[in-house]
């Protein structure tokens, strides 16, 4: 696991990422989440490349956005009852504390939304 706490995305080809084999489809939801995030990043790169080749004079920029870890969004719905409670009810209230220990990429949903809107 990377230091984000999420499992590492399984990737061999873009086709497999878009249409995963049954062994991955039947796997844990957090793996699907990691794979979906990777697919979004790869799509951002591919779209930039295609637009740069098709309309180079337009100066089109392609962006993606990392909202960070957002406790309280229901992402931990597969976890145990205690872990879900901690993530959905406790962590949103103490978000500043874990920002200094494992990572500073932890935000409440309203903070992430405000960053995206800027």
What's the gist of this structure?
Helix content is 50%, strand content 0%. It has helices spanning 14-18, 22-25, 29-54, 81-90, 96-100, 109-117.
Kindly describe this structure.
This protein has helices at 14-18, 22-25, 29-54, 81-90, 96-100, 109-117. The chain has 118 residues and is mainly alpha-helical. The chain folds into two domains: 1-64, no CATH class; 68-118, no CATH class. The longest helix has 26 residues, at 29-54. The radius of gyration is 17 Å and the shape is flat.
Structural class, please?
mainly alpha
User: What share of residues are in beta strands?
Assistant: under 5%
SS field, number of helical segments: 6
Low-confidence stretches: none
Task: Summarize this structure as a short list of keywords or feature phrases.
118 residues; 2 domains; flat; mainly alpha; NAD(P)-bd_dom_sf
Q: How would you summarize the topology of this molecule?
A:
Blueprint: H1 14-18, H2 22-25, H3 29-54, H4 81-90, H5 96-100, H6 109-117
């Amino acid at each position: 696991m990377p230091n984000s706490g999420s499992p590492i995305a399984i990737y061999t080809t873009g086709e497999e990422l878009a249409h995963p084999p049954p062994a991955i489809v039947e796997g844990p939801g957090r793996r699907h989440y990691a794979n979906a995030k990777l697919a979004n990043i790869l799509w951002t790169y591919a779209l930039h490349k295609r637009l740069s080749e098709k309309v180079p004079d337009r100066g089109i920029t392609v962006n993606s956005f990392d909202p960070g870890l957002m406790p309280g969004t229901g992402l931990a719905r597969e976890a145990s009852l205690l872990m879900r409670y901690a993530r959905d009810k406790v962590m949103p209230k103490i978000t500043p504390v874990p920002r200094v220990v494992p990572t500073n990429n932890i935000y409440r949903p309203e903070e992430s939304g405000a960053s995206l809107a800027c």
